[in-house]
User: Fold this.
Amino acid sequence: MRIAARYNGPPGSGNGGYSAGLLATRLGLAPAEVTLRRPPPLETDLTLADGRATHGDELIAEARPAPGEKPDAVRPVSLDEAAEATKRYGGLSGHPFPTCYVCGTERADGLGLLPGPVSGDRTATPWHVPADVAEVTMWAALDCPGGWSVIAEGRPYVLGRLAVWIDAVAEPGDTCVVMGQYLGGEGRKAQALSTVYDSSGAPLAVARATWIAL
Assistant:
């Protein structure tokens, strides 16, 4: 498995959702839960065996079938409300990783998600689905909207674990709404949900995540 440089999150490492999704899809696991043990390296050949991705003696990530029941979808907002929420996106004034493939403000070739706050500890953003959308793209889209429901000013978080249930891949060219929701946390760990809705309002995929404060 090799994560192309385009799919970065923090500088020099893979976007957590994309990297987790690449591992899960390569292993044929669905629904799946992936735990990231180290920042996934870019442009590096990783060895896959026994549900794990390794680089030499280093364990990078491990995957397993998603445990427990599929979580409820995050309550949606309309596309217009999601578009309005992007004006409040925290990354516009202080993004810890501005070149992130999913939510970076300095990327012209990323997914362009700008999840801003809405009521109920939620975030919302439109998503203009790219032509090359695939399951791994869905994993990526489910990543940062949940994270931005957790991130506080001056305290960045990175993805630690992501469990994903995909009912359908978004249609190329569609405009979806992606929601995130903060569930609570303790110490350096925080829990969040996320959901992708298509333009008709049907939920396509949900995720449950653990985020780790740096």
